[in-house]
Amino acid sequence: MTTQQLNQLSTHGLDLRYGDRLVVGGLDLVLPGGAVTAIVGPNACGKSTLLRGLTRLLAPSEGTVALDGADIHRMTARSLARRMGLLPQQPVTPDAISVEALVRLGRYPHQRLLSAWSAADQAAVEEALRRTGTTQLRDQPVDQLSGGQRQRAWIALALAQDTDLLLLDEPTTFLDLRHQLDVLDLVAELHAEAGRTVVMVLHDLGQAARYADHLVVLKDGQLAAAGAPAEVLDAELVKSVFDVECRVIPDPETGTPLVVPRGRAARQTAVPA
Q: 118-148 as b/e, with b when 16 or more CB fall inside 10 Å?
C-alpha cells in the first residue's frame, strides 16, 4: 500500500441514526491516510456523530465504514483499539482515578491475558504524560482538575494507546487560546514525527485550515465539500454552509485560508467602493 492508503478510513453509503432520526445520510467519504483531516461544519450538522460512526461507537443503519478496505465492524474490539485511538467529546472519568492511572488505561489493547506491566508500557505512559504537560499532575485525581487539565489528561490516554490513527472529537474544548495551540501543535508534531493519521472535529475554521491537510465540511449530515483547505475554503462555501458573510484571505503567518467574518457591525460601517 502507498502511504496514503495506510490507515485510510472510508465510508460508503453511510447512514447514522439516533432512533428514527437520520443524522448522517448516504455519506461516501475517503479520509486520506498519513494526513491530518479536520471535520468542520455548523452545530448539529453531524460532525461528532460521524466520528462516532468512524470509531464503531455508533453502528450504521446502512452502509459501511472501512479501515484500509476492511469493514471495521468485522474486526475484534482489541484489534481495532490497536489501530485506532479516540478522544471522545465528553469522556466520562472513572471515580477518583488519578491522572497516571487514567493514562495507563491506554495500554489495555496491548496487554495479554495474565501479562505483567512492562517497561515498554511504562515508557509509553511517561512519554504521553510528557508530551501533554501532565507529568506534574500524575498523582492528582482527574475529577479535581480544571477543564483544560482534564482534557490534556484524556489526550495523554489516547497517546499512550500508541496507535497510528488518532481521532479527536473537539480536542480544544475547555481550553484557552494558548492551550488550544499547544494541543494543535502537538497534533502536528505527532503527524510530522511518526506519520500518524489524525482525524479531528474542530469549530474554528482558521485553526482547521492551518493545521489540517484535508478538510471535510458537513452540512445537515451531508458532505458539502472535501479537499485541501486552500481548494475548498472560500467565501461562497462559508456562506452556504454557515450562513455567514466573510472574506477569506491568506493567513499572514502560514498563508493558509483565514476566514474573516463580516458580521452585522462590519456591514453597517462598510465604506462603499
A: eeebeebbeebbebbbbeebbebebeebeeb
211 closest CA partner among 193, 199, 194, 225: 199
What does the DSSP 8-state code read for residue 272? Answer: P
pLDDT digits (tens, 9 = 90+) for 146-185: 888 888 898 899 889 988 899 999 988 878 888 888 889 9
Residue 167: half-sphere exposure toward Cβ, Cα within 13 Å: 26
* Distance between CA atoms of residues 107 and 194, nearest Å: 18
Q: Can you tell me whether residue 31 is helix, strand or coil? A: strand
> Is there a contact between 60 and 101 (Cβ–Cβ < 8 Å)?
no
193, 198, 203, 205 alpha-carbon torsion, rounded to 10°: 60
Residues present in the chain in total: 273
Q: CA quadruple 262, 263, 269, 273: dihedral positive or negative?
A: positive
pTM: 0.88
Read off φ and ψ for residue 188, nearest 5 degrees. Answer: -65, -40
d(CA 38, CA 64): 21
In tens, the pLDDT along 8-54 reads 999 999 999 999 999 999 999 999 999 999 999 999 999 999 999 99
